[in-house]
Amino acid sequence: MPQPPTGLPIVDMSLLSGDDDARTEFRTALRRATHEFGFFFLTGHGIDRSIRDRLFDTARDFFALPDTHKFSVEMLASPQFRGYTRFGGEYTQGAVDWREQIDLAAEYPSLGDEPPYLRLDGPNLWPLSLPDFRGVIQDWQGRCSALGLELMREWALSLGAPADLFDAAFADRPSTLLKLVRYPGQDDDAAARQGVGAHKDPGVLTLLLVEPGKGGLQVAHGDDWIDVPPVEDAFVVNIGELMEYATDGYLKATLHRVQSPPEGTERLSVPFFFNPALSSTMPRIELPADLAAQAPGVTDDPDNVISGTFGENMLKARLRAHPDVAARHHPDLVD
Ligand SMILES: O=C(O)CCC(=O)C(=O)O
Ligand SMILES: [Fe+2]
Questions:
Q1: Count of CB atoms within 10 A of residue 299's CB?
Q2: What positions does the domain Fe2OG dioxygenase occupy (predicted)?
């Protein structure tokens, strides 16, 4: 029997400042990693440690706020699914996730209520007791958006398409979202230790920063779960369902989950989701014949239908993860 792989591939972005051969090497590594695993470590991305440390300091400051401050920006008050979710407020596959988090997304004026996914546009709930918070978060959004767009161009090239294939989808009102997440420790006997349950990300691309040294992330590979302890200075990058859609399944959105850290510890992470405008539909790539032969089609799961229109896919995920917000603000969309 083949042994399960022990880790994810590492893809080094500094190859892009090399010669043509180095750039081709980068693209081949990017394509292979996302075809085989849907996940990889990205090094050489150029975002300094001091900036990453500042982000984690900001996350720590937020989670250290008194509950009354956190509750004042609670997601339950936000029809757009922005703000703070306390422990027990979020569900994956019908089971409670043991994490607290704040969701912050790009802010655009509303374009109306129909189709229903347009309801996701709107304001964030900013914690006003932290004066630097907004600036740090918006800086991070800007850096990750630039990185995300650069990666999208590399994917397009690696799949035999023009570099700007995806640019239009991200040019106007990109729906970027980031979460500051804190997973508290659980004792060994805790029945499930579900930090976040097994799921695929509904969007295009996720740039995940994990607190140095903190394990817990697991990525599905065949019938196995691969442990993914963080690699120093690297992002964990994965693709979401819309990239699977765009490539007819040649690139895979992969199930992943987080196991709670040991009792007496905690784990912070900051996933950044790079997504197009709510109303945009991902272009489908005409793959070269050798790649098309390895494209099995988009996953056909009646419990999780993948739409190519980002807003539809995102709304599905939001209603499922936050049933209390859905029931309060969108009763017409849930039964
Ligand atoms: O916290 C992590 O390491 C992963 C979180 C995640 O997969 C998600 O929020 O979609
Ligand atoms: Fe995820």
A1: 15
A2: 173-276
